[in-house]
Write a structure and sequence with these properties.
- Two copies of one chain form a homodimer.
- Chain A is mainly alpha-helical and 209 residues long.
- Chain A contains ten helices and no strands.
- The first copy, chain A, folds into two domains: 59 residues, Arc Repressor Mutant, subunit A (Orthogonal Bundle); 125 residues, Tetracycline Repressor, domain 2.
- The longest helix of chain A has 28 residues.
- Chain A is elongated, with a radius of gyration of 20 Å.
- At the A-B interface, helix 1, helix 6, helix 7, helix 8 and helix 9 of A face helix 1, helix 6, helix 7, helix 8 and helix 9 of B.
- Chains A, B: GO terms for molecular function: DNA-binding transcription factor activity; transcription cis-regulatory region binding.
């Protein structure tokens, strides 16, 4: 039992050290030896938990996925609630430079199909897009989206904005307000304030009959 | 004379090989030995042109700066002309995956103040922002910017959008249209079509007196 708990703590320590090292030198520049050194264990000791560099990266991304899933459970209903949760996520990220750094670097490294995190990011973008398209479509049906705004295009733009803000903010932290920019974008595309009450049914059905 | 020309060609070859290797393994993962091998010269031969890894990166960025300066000369007047030139730049980038890849990776790597390209990207963002703020301010004075759009915030958002689109496009090329998204954003913030004629003087002065 004690051994099991110690093993879990050691595993978490390795994952946290990996995130730190990726953030400093990128995934490709990171060596298992350096990560083992940070945790204060031998290279062989690390291989007991993670048999390869790819296995360690997969575990780092899985841990992030688990945190995301937990957060998504709290996302709320498609529409204004989901958009507000993205603003909250941005505010959360603005408190954690380390996570934003590793995410931005990995996303940029993983664009090539040969990278071990490529499929993860491909799926990650598709999931985020599907979630946002649904929300913008719901808002359009309720008359809460500005005329002329396309749900699919707004979703791609919103994700791009959030990603691009991260790199710009990491580079010049004092000059970029990520939360204000994300809110600003939503003000451009919404026909109602972000904090408005969600409409319970499609606007058309209230108008008809 | 022949030696001089050969030296310039060799120098250009090394810079191009460096861009290729950075694109594959990142700046931190790139070794001078690997770059020399690509050009078909020895490590010592490469050191004759570029005495260190940092010197080579500086030369790669200087070459990019020179190309940017040439392009900026063609940017046109602050206002719609400048915005149209950013759309044209996006269309140009969409034809050159390699350049977009290396730029995205380097920008994400260089967020930490210790990175040799950090000052370059800090300046790069400031220059782009200053150029865009000026254009949005000119448009606001001419009544060509939508009410409620802040020039400074729109500039940060526009740069973030362009950067974020690149990573998303590199990851899922068939699902992201960079040019359409950049145009779409400008439609959100402009009160006139992007292809409208620029107003010659401030709109207020025609209204007054």
């Amino acid at each position: 039992m004690v051994g099991y708990v110690k093993g879990r703590i050691r595993r978490e320590d390795i994952l946290s050290a990996a995130v730190a090292v990726y953030g400093e030198v990128g995934y490709h520049g990171a060596s298992l030896r350096e990560i083992a050194k940070r945790v204060g264990i031998t290279h062989a000791g690390l291989l007991y938990y993670f048999p390869s560099k790819e296995a360690l990266l997969a575990a780092v991304l899985e841990r992030r996925d688990a945190a995301d899933a937990e957060r998504e459970r709290l996302l709320g209903n498609p529409g204004l609630e989901v958009l507000r949760s993205f603003v909250a996520l941005t505010a959360h990220n603005a408190q954690d430079r380390g996570i934003v750094d590793i995410y931005s670097r990995l996303a940029a490294e993983a664009v090539s199909p040969g990278h071990p995190a490529h499929d993860y990011f491909k799926r990650h973008y598709r999931d985020a897009r599907a979630c946002l398209v649904e929300s913008f479509q719901v808002l359009a049906r309720c008359g809460q989206l500005r005329d002329g705004v396309d749900a699919g295009q707004a979703a791609v733009m919103f994700i791009a904005l959030m990603d691009g803000l991260q790199v710009q903010w990491l580079t010049n932290p004092a000059e970029v307000d990520m939360v204000a920019s994300v809110r600003g974008f939503l003000e451009y595309v919404l026909a109602v304030p972000l904090d408005a009450e969600p409409v319970t049914g499609p606007a058309q059905s209230t108008v008809r009959s």
